[in-house]
UniProtKB/TrEMBL annotation:
GO terms for biological process: proteolysis. It comes from Rotaria sordida. This is Peptidase S1 domain-containing protein. Belongs to the peptidase S1 family. CLIP subfamily. Residues 1-229, 270-510 form the Peptidase S1 domain. GO terms for molecular function: serine-type endopeptidase activity.
């Protein structure tokens, strides 16, 4: 997984190495390549000796330097870069070329403690840090080293940001043994594979009290992934750490909420949005401006003639004959040629829609199409399922706290820069309690809104769908509305609660003799498995079964349970303080 970087330039550069992320991308330190153009860099892969005649040599096509890297003036914080190769490495053709594994950390774990204090790590490289050059006759070396506590005085005076950097050395005196190469990997053993946890950043070789400084890789997973996704590539960690969960839709017995293909989702909250399986979300559409391929917002198919989206997406268009707005259906890739385009006849914005800044109330709209889409005769199109709940008490708790949900869309991934993926993205999030302090300050009306958390900085696909799995089909329980995660990924997003607007939606759709699906009121017992983050809740995980039969006994029982739960939390808070 290690490669040697060769520089063919008059500019003097220290020897460096890197590691293979996938067929096209190499991971290294920013300081290695900050002053050199891509055409002067080649990489050698599959080698044990630098002079190996069987080396796989590739030219670097493009450099992605971390946008906040400032070099030694900032203590080498954000010392990370990606190199895109001009052609793929083709792992299947060379047994000596393999990708590195990078961390997939659970959201509840403190990244600044990964790897944790005292962890035994291994550095590999050709020891150019010690020698100042690469000895072409020197074989690849490996040495053990240890993580030193972030709060150790030796580390505190050596690095700037403990969340983005960590230090290693001999535990006795912190002395850096001066192993490896700049930009090279440092790894820990994970019982069945090696995982790269850092990138060699800078060192004061052999001076007691000054350990080596490494870029903490777990902090930059989102940034790495955002670059790779923009080239329709993926990290190998997604497939090596977690197997996808397949949701088998009961297409023979349901009339909505199922795509042509089954949905597959990697249940990981650190890697971010993953590519959707082709034709798995066939109820989703792209809103676009006429004569342009620019994706504006997301939406979903309510019926042959109606599209559901957010009101703020279409408020600037004419309500009657908005000639400059179209929808594109039947696609997973925005550039798919086999797409269904339809023009908008009329826009129905909720009569009570209001907004201040980016806070929206009653953020829901329905678009009527000129030409029906004939969903039943087209396998690449399907209806979305809208909740039908008769109890107002159950409505403001639906979906319930902690429910695992999925958002989908082509929304811009925001992490230092804006990148618009071509492939439809999907991401798991979790419902947060209405009364949680982070939510109560953002929600204007708990009847019509709910909030859910995303462990990632992401600019949501406005108007897009947020759905839950019922065991037989996907049910859309919300619309992506306000977005508050641009600056702080710990702040949740606000979503329009669809169950509150069922009657209004029914009234509009019925004007042309059509109807929403499903037509029945919810009366089944639904089991919802949830994973709860400790930063938002007081337990690590729970499984909840809810009775969705809308009767007074069920509603009263639910209210009593919620009151009891809040009393227990209050007692715990008093005891802790």
């Amino acid at each position: 997984m290690i490669v040697l970087l060769n520089f063919h330039s008059s500019i003097e550069n220290s020897p460096c190495s890197g590691s293979i992320l996938n067929n096209y991308f190499i991971l290294t330190a920013a300081h290695c390549i900050e002053k050199i153009a891509p055409l002067y860099i080649t990489i050698k892969a599959g080698i044990h000796y630098p002079i190996d005649e069987n080396a796989t040599i590739h030219i670097v096509d493009r450099i992605y330097l971390h946008p906040k890297y400032k070099g030694h003036t900032d203590g080498y914080v954000n010392d990370i870069a990606l190199l895109k190769l001009n052609k793929p490495l083709n792992f299947n053709d060379n047994l000596y070329v393999t990708p590195t594994c990078i961390p997939t950390i659970n959201a509840s774990r403190n990244i600044s403690q990964y790897p944790k204090n005292g962890t035994r790590l291994t550095v590999i490289g050709w020891n150019s840090i010690r020698q100042g050059k690469v000895d072409i006759f020197n074989p690849l070396q490996q040495r053990e080293i240890f993580v030193i506590d972030n709060n150790n005085p030796m580390c505190l005076r050596s690095f700037i940001d403990p969340e983005k950097q960590f230090c290693t050395g001999f535990l006795k005196d912190g002395r850096d043994p001066c192993y490896g190469d700049s930009g090279g990997p440092i790894l820990q053993w994970m019982s069945n594979r090696w995982e790269q946890v850092g990138i060699a950043s800078y060192s004061r070789c052999g001076i007691p009290g000054y350990p080596s400084i490494y870029t903490r890789l777990a902090y930059y997973i989102d940034w790495i992934n955002s670059i790779i996704i923009s080239h329709n590539e993926s990290l190998y960690t997604v497939t090596t750490r977690n197997s996808p969960v397949t949701y088998n839709c009961d297409r023979n017995n349901v009339t909505c909420g199922c795509g042509y293909a089954n949905v597959e989702i990697i249940q990981s909250r650190i890697i971010g949005g993953t590519n959707a399986v082709e034709a798995s979300w066939t109820m989703f559409v792209s809103l676009r401006i006429l004569n342009g391929n620019k994706h504006l917002c997301g939406g979903t198919l309510l019926s042959n003639s109606y599209i559901l989206t957010a009101a703020h997406c279409v408020q600037s268009f004419s309500l009657i004959d908005p000639f400059d707005l179209t929808i594109v259906a039947g696609i997973t890739n925005r550039s798919d040629s086999s797409q269904y385009i339809s023009y908008i006849r009329r826009i129905y914005i909720h009569p009570n829609f209001t907004h201040q800044s980016n806070r929206f109330i009653n953020d829901i709209a329905i678009l009527e199409l000129y030409d029906p889409l004939l969903i039943d005769s087209n396998p690449l199109l399907s209806r979305t399922c809208v909740p039908h709940i008769s109890s107002s008490i159950l409505n403001n708790q639906y979906p319930i706290n902690g429910t695992r949900l999925v958002i989908i869309g082509w929304g811009t991934i925001e992490h230092e820069q804006y990148i618009e993926p071509d492939i439809l993205q999907q991401l798991e999030i979790f419902v947060i309690d209405n009364n949680h302090p982070m939510c109560s300050n953002l929600i204007n009306n708990i009847e019509s809104q709910f909030c859910a958390g995303v462990y990632q900085e992401r600019k949501g696909d406005s108007g897009g769908a947020i759905l839950q799995w019922t065991g037989q089909y996907w049910q859309q329980i919300g619309i992506i509305s306000s977005d508050f995660t641009c600056e702080n990924s710990s702040i949740p997003n606000i979503y329009t609660r669809l169950s509150y607007y069922r009657s209004w939606m029914d009234e509009i759709v019925s004007k042309t003799g059509e109807h929403l699906e499903p037509t029945h009121t919810m009366s089944n017992t639904t089991t919802i498995t949830t994973t709860i983050s400790s930063s938002w809740y007081y337990t690590n995980s729970t499984q909840t079964s809810i009775e969705t039969t809308p009767n007074m006994n069920c509603s009263l029982k639910y209210q009593l349970n919620m009151i009891l739960f809040k009393i227990i939390l209050f007692i715990i808070f008093i005891l802790i303080n």
